[in-house]
Amino acid sequence: MIPLLLTILCSTSIALILKHSDTKQGNPIVLLAGNYLTASVIGLILMLLKDASHSIETLIFGALLGLLFVASFFAFAKAVAIAGTALATISSRLSVIIPIVFSIIIFDEKPSTIKLIGFLFTGITFVFFYFSLLKQNNSSSSRRNYLLLLFVLIAIGINDFSMKLYKNIRPESEETFFVFTIFLFAFIYSALFIFIKKIKIDKKTFLTGLGLGVPNVFSTIFLLGALSQLPAIFVYPTINIGIIIFTAIGAYTIWKEKMNKAGIVALISGIVAILFLSIKSI
């Protein structure tokens, strides 16, 4: 149970650190560069300790996925700033629906009644996302923010699906090399963006990003530890729901970030959707 709790705490701290950086007006891409630098170093150490094997195919896979990691994390950081910590976190956690959709499309799997109920509650959640954003901003801003939340869900979902796809098509011996490659190229992409756009590197934001990289890496390590001790059907919904609740409480406690009624409904329906999407077919 300890790895399970540590996974929740690490993932929660990621959203709260992003919120903290936003309150200090830190540039998200500078934050991400620091984050991926730390993640790359930790990934390299883990790869060397395990004496991982490597291949050009895994290198290319990791390089491509690294770009999506940067895009999804940047979108999540912007969503935290624009839509609020709780709504952004709900959207990121609902990304569990994307691997299910891909399995239906690619592998011709038939969704169970339980999964269809999960789809329904996901739809309800996004309807109330829009109502919540509409009360926060004008209609044009609400549409833009709504699309941002949708992009967060889809991009993070594709990340998760790609990780699962990797485990099916590439050898386990290259796993740490794959993780290192993702983080390394994510750092390269974010650093190139900073260089090309001539973005000023704020020292405090970059140092915050270095700190962010620690829970970012260890959330994955603790997740693997939790999965080795407990069944996945218990681990995934517990982690996703725990992160949503802890993040909402943390944002309210630290910054008094409140949710309107539509946002509260979205939070509840999002939790219900995750529960149904995580249950095995019956």
Would you write up a description of this structure?
By secondary structure, this protein is mostly helical. It has one domain. Helix content is 84%, strand content 0%. It has helices spanning 2-23, 28-50, 56-83, 85-93, 97-106, 113-136, 139-169, 175-196, 203-229, 232-255, 261-278. The longest helix has 31 residues, at 139-169. The radius of gyration is 18 Å and the shape is globular.
Describe this structure in a few short sentences.
The protein is built from 11 helices and no strands.
Mean pLDDT over the residues: 89
Helical amount among residues, as a percent range? Answer: over 70%
Report on the biggest sheet.
none
**CA-based gyration radius:** 18 Å
Distinct helical segment count: 11
| Distance separating the two termini | 27 Å
Uncertain spans, ≥5 residues at pLDDT below 50?
A: none
Q: Note the beta-strand portion.
A: under 5%
Total tally of structural domains: 1
Name the structural class: mainly alpha
- C-alpha geometry: globular
| Total strands | 0
H/E topology pattern: HHHHHHHHHHH
